[in-house]
Design a protein that fits this description.
This protein folds into 3 domains: about 5-30 and about 235-290, no CATH class; about 45-140, Carboxypeptidase-like, regulatory domain (Immunoglobulin-like, Sandwich), CATH 2.60.40; about 145-230, Sandwich (Immunoglobulin-like), CATH 2.60.40.1120. The chain has no helices and 25 strands. It has strands at about 5, 10-15, 50-55, 70-75, 85-90, 95-100, 105-110, 125-130, 135, 140, 145-150, 160-165, 170-175, 185, 190-200, 205, 210-215, 220-225, 225, 230-240, 245, 250-255, 260-265, 270-275, 280-290. The strands form 6 sheets. Strands 2, 16, 20, 21 and 24 form a 5-stranded mixed β-sheet that branches. The protein has a 4-stranded antiparallel β-sheet with strand order 1-25-22-23, with no helix packed on it. It is globular, with a radius of gyration of 22 Å. Residues about 1-45 have low confidence and may be disordered.
């Protein structure tokens, strides 16, 4: 295996994976970006299982914002939040419904639209147990306890990414920042001290932000800007063909001479980025093929 090493001086490289057929599945730093919610099925007579329905309200008795939707998902620690039974749009009346729900434990949550002015935050996550009869679940949106903006490294231009919220070492919230204004909102949290850290949107030449700590108190909304770090190593992973084809969700590992380890997964355009590394150290890069391509071996890198 021929592996070359580079000092951290703004390295950019193109990497070849020894494969010609690739699985396309979205991931960014091990987290999956959400898709637009689709309407939940409402005719339970056509689908096995029972119906889980309910009404979404607001904490100040105002109409539910158009575009509010509800998640229903299994509490499986090996699955991300978007591995759901369904995503249902909420009607103007606040009602929602999921049909064909099999017996078992589920989480359910209402999420307001992620557009300004962001008056409300998601409801508190509820754990429900579905038996053999249909059930109704009331959900109430919350007022924001944290609002903020995700910025590019200079701290001036808003950008996109994912904001993670931790209580101690446990992740308690994850907010996708998808709007051009970089705004995000967090709600439904109890009083206490929390830590925030953001990862960049896949394919952007940035690295995770530094940690931000915020102490929440009842009824007090706090503004917390989050600034991504610049990437120090960027590159593109391509298939080893005559015409290069970008490789999606390949895993890129970087090991430095001072024993730091960084990981990223390639975006749709094959781009990856690594950062938060000490200047002057030497880094060794490895790439593994996307999941489902186990017959492809770990490749040699630039």
């Amino acid at each position: 295996m021929n592996i070359r090493k580079f000092g951290l001086v703004g390295l950019t490289c193109i990497v070849a994976i020894l494969a010609t057929t690739l699985v396309v599945r979205f991931a960014a730093a091990s987290f999956t970006a959400p898709t637009e919610p689709t309407a939940a099925a409402t005719d339970s007579s056509l689908i096995p299982g029972v119906t889980v329905s309910g009404t979404v309200t607001t904490p100040d008795a105002q109409p539910v914002p158009p575009g509010t939707w509800v998640w229903l998902w299994h509490p499986d620690p090996d699955q991300d939040l978007d591995q759901t039974h369904g995503r249902g749009m909420v009607a103007t009346s606040g009602n929602f419904s999921f049909a064909g729900v099999e017996p078992g434990d589920y989480y359910v949550r209402a999420v307001p639209p992620d557009v300004a002015p962001r008056t409300y935050a998601p409801s508190v996550v509820q754990l429900i147990t579905v038996f053999t009869q249909s059930m109704s679940v009331p959900l109430q949106l919350t007022f924001p306890s944290i609002t903020g903006t995700l910025f590019e490294p200079a701290g001036i231009t808003p950008t996109q990414g994912i904001v993670h919220v931790y209580s101690g070492t446990m992740e308690v919230e994850r907010r996708w920042v998808t709007q051009p204004d970089g705004g995000y909102v967090v709600g439904g949290l109890m009083t206490g001290t929390f830590s925030l850290r953001a990862e960049p949107w896949p394919g952007l030449p940035y690295w995770w932000s530094h940690w931000s700590t915020v102490a929440l108190t009842p009824t007090v909304e706090q503004y917390v800007p989050v600034i991504l770090q610049p990437a120090q190593v960027t590159g593109r992973v391509v298939a080893n063909d005559i015409v290069p084809v970008s490789v999606f969700e390949a895993r890129v590992d970087g090991f430095t001479s001072d024993r730091k380890h960084r990981v990223d997964y390639t975006a749709l355009n094959g781009r990856f980025a690594l950062g938060d590394l000490n200047a002057g150290t030497t880094i060794t890069l490895y790439v593994d093929p996307p999941l489902g391509k186990a017959h492809c071996c770990r490749s040699r890198l630039c």
